[in-house]
Amino acid sequence: GCRELWTRRPPCRSSLEVPEINALEVNQRDHWAVLAGGDGAVRVLDLESGAFTHELRGHQDLVHVVALREQLPQVLSGGEDGTVRLWDLRLGSQVQLIEVHKYQECSRPQLGKWIRCLATESDWMVCGGGPALTLWHLRSVTPTTVFPLAPPQHHALFHQDMVLSGGVGPALHLLQLNGDVRGRVPVSPPALRSLCLHPRSPEHQVLTVGGNSPKIDVFTNLGYRAFSLSFT
């Protein structure tokens, strides 16, 4: 019963230069979406009018991931250039730049400087990719915890007093904010690309995990996988 209401493409000079969309996050309260572009731009789309309201440029390469700050009209973005940038939509400009790979405790030159996973909650941020997965305090721009995970991480999110993450390898990592690994839960995909936590039911938390596999794993308890949906 679904039908397409409208289609919008990021502004470009020709049909041969339409940038791919690497990530998309929706602000359901204010009805706008933010898109991470293959051309290095971060764009904001008004979902009611269908108009692009901001085009934020600063990344020197493609943007992999975006994250929204809940209480502020601000967006975080991470890209292939190894930077995390904080954008203020009221100003339409960048207000903070973090070059994660330049911090010795985070840097892993053998894996590269790209940022692939990014999440934020209050004044905190977790990010990783080539650099180690790290918890940051945004106001002081300080890395406070480096999580002991060797493979690159592709997706992370905050959940209660933990960080959940996954990447290369068939495991969901349950991490305490002090850096301790609370658990490694086996998953179907050999590499994990996406985590989605049901936001509207505190009593019945459902986590879905997807990646390089035709299966989506479903967790009703973070300690074990309840079942998998197969799309073969």
What does this structure look like?
The mean pLDDT is about 90. It contains no helices and 20 strands. It starts with 20 loop residues before the first strand and ends with a strand. The chain has strands spanning about 20-25, 30-35, 40-45, 50-55, 65-70, 75-80, 85-90, 95-100, 115-120, 125-130, 135, 140-145, 155-160, 160-165, 170-175, 180-185, 190-195, 205-210, 215-220, 225-230. About 0% of the residues lie in helices and about 50% in strands.
Q: Any key phrases for this structure?
A:
4-stranded antiparallel β-sheet, single chain, 232 residues, mainly beta, THOC6
Identify the strand order in the major beta sheet.
Answer: 1-2-3-4
Strand content: over 45%
Question: What's the alpha carbon Rg, rounded to whole Å?
Answer: 18 Å
What profile does the largest beta sheet have? 4 strands, antiparallel
- Per DSSP, the total helix count is 0
Shape: globular
The whole-number mean of residue pLDDT values reads 92
Taken in chain order, the helices and strands follow as EEEEEEEEEEEEEEEEEEEE
Number of strands: 20
